[in-house]
Design brief:
196 residues, mainly alpha
Length: 196
């Protein structure tokens, strides 16, 4: 592009021109294209917006595309979770129930990918998940509760070795004082299970 792209200033990746060799050389993705990074962010943002569209046809089409992108990410051995986390963390403040479902589904999918240690990034979205326990939508509360149960199981097992227990504890202590009964109870339960 002849004009500077400011979003690339914070990215520290090896850039290359996309070609058959750089995209799939040696049987895997050895390079990260700037175009893929920019459009990947834009696709995720667009999918997030589509999930909240008032037109059910648009939502359904967005859901199909979202599932395709999730399948690609789940099959990729080179998905850069660290570059993705700021976008996910930013979205966790959403109040729209469809966006919340979208975000929880992404957390669940990423957690299911063996090459991604989501427990290491738990402090980046734990507060948002705990906040969603007070959502008026029962389905969201159930999805969040299931996701939290899986992460708690990880913390209690070998997968918890990479967790930042200091940051997790700080989040749990803050949420233990929540005005919402469910959130408060979940935080206290986690403190008992993780620390106790």
């Amino acid at each position: 592009s002849p004009s500077p792209l400011d979003d690339l200033r914070t990215i520290e990746q090896g850039w290359s021109v996309a070609s058959a060799k750089t995209v799939a050389g040696n049987g895997g993705f050895g390079y990260f294209s700037a175009v893929c990074w920019i459009f990947g962010r834009e696709v995720f943002d667009a999918l997030c917006r589509l999930s909240a569209d008032p037109d059910s046809n648009v939502q359904n089409a967005g859901h199909l595309l979202d599932q395709l992108v999730k399948d690609i990410v789940a099959e990729s051995s080179r998905f850069d979770i660290e570059a993705f986390m700021p976008q996910l963390r930013e979205g966790m403040a959403a109040l729209n129930p469809y966006v919340r479902q979208f975000l929880v589904s992404w957390i669940t999918v990423l957690h299911s990918v063996p090459d991604i240690e989501m427990v290491a990034y738990l402090p980046d979205f734990l507060d948002g998940l705990l906040n969603m326990l007070s959502d008026a939508n029962r389905e969201i509360r159930q999805q969040v509760d299931l996701a939290l149960a899986e992460f708690l199981q990880d913390l209690q097992g070998a997968a918890g070795a990479g967790a930042d227990y200091g940051r997790i504890s700080a989040i749990l202590v803050a949420r233990a004082g929540s005005a919402d009964h469910t959130t408060r109870l979940k935080a206290i339960t986690w403190i008992n299970e993780v620390v106790g």
